[in-house]
Specification:
This protein has 235 residues and is α/β, with parallel strands linked by helices. The protein has helices at 2-23, 75-82, 126-136, 146-150, 166-178, 196-209; strands at 35-46, 49-58, 64-68, 90-97, 100-101, 111-114, 184-188, 214-218, 230-233. Strand 7 (184-188), helix 6 and strand 8 form a beta-alpha-beta unit.
Amino acid sequence: MGLSFFFANIALSTIFIKITLAFDPILKVPAPKSINFVLEDVGKKFYQRWLFKGISHDFQEAPHVALVGRNGSGKSTLMRIIAGQMLPSLGSVTCKIDEKPFPKDKFYQIISWSGPYIDLYEDLTLKEQIDLHFALKKCLLPSPKDIITLLRLEAHQDKQLRLYSSGMLQRVKVGMAVLTDTPILLLDEPTSNMDPENAAIMLSLIQEHAQNRIMVLASNMEREYLSFDHVLKLS
């Protein structure tokens, strides 16, 4: 009885999500003509200790930025601040869309993001996850289902994501982020848990679809940021 109740709740939740999305396509915002995104003297402090401070960057000058540094240096924290999920202790993050100030509480509309702390709905199949995601945001491909082929996951598209390996889940998360039509792309360790062949395919996909976008990539692997305009080292 307990298990039946659990799966019934999943089914009802899925139906509710689909109905909600049908009436609330608020994330599908028009593509901006221009975007000005600036970090100014950004710092973050935890318990009297500065994780980092004095971070400034104008993304119009260098749109692709790699954040590098040892574990615990604050790469993921800075990503959260950039995404508007966390407030800095010092400084500011500002965004203008078509010369008009864009509010931080709406940053989610213009950002696609992949990281170890971002989860998928593992009770859904890959096809269902893609349908859900791209009901909210636009896809760069003619059809969102084309992502399945690009990620070489056709044989697994009807499996629940909970049955995927860590490398397969990573391909899904990063692939959906990269192929979401947003002006800002945030990637935290995008090829972690991937074998060399799939890592190479993913890096090629990122390079192809990151043109004309702001991209911030946090990494300790040089292969992930070799072509970047600017490398910011956090100590």
